[in-house]
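User: Structure please.
Assistant: Input sequence and predicted structure:
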Amino acid sequence: MPRPRSLSHDQLAAAALAVLDRDGLAGLSMRAVAKELGMSTMALYRYVRDRDELELLVVEFALGAVDTGAPPEDLPWRERIEILMRRMRDTLSAHPSVVPLTMTHRHHSRALLRWSETVLAVLTGAGFDGERRVVALRSLIAYVNGALQLEHLGALSGAGTTAISALSPDEFPLMAATARSARRVDPEREFSGGLTVLLRGLDD
């Protein structure tokens, strides 16, 4: 008879998430997760086939906290989409190293598929269909993931912005000037502003 399992998928995912939060995506490995659980690497293979399966468990565990319920129907469709986008952003902001994995496993994550289904319901109610609906959904997914990576996984403490603002104004006048302005734009304003531009564009 097979040996009884002593760890649940949630326990495995929580351990992997702890490694991601502490060491980043580069630090995620079967060995690191096994160490987090206090077991041998070989023992971990009793529960998951490989790192790919472990990653999917982490994505499901992290995104399981996203509220995928439909926003109030009396709100305009743009506001309903914004609510859904913020739910995803707020959840993943707590675990930014998971963000790249959501793209890798987007076709297999039930949690992401449920969120996408709710987004599609709002878009459909607003008259989106066919190719226009495809473009809208993919644009929204790309935006929330891109914004999270820019905010959390870019150069630490604005080092990248500082470096660009110091570029030669003769060679990169607009990049340098824009970087100086960027210092005054906080993440919330950047996310809201970009989302507003995107939603207006989708409505054209």
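The first helix runs from residue 9 to 23.
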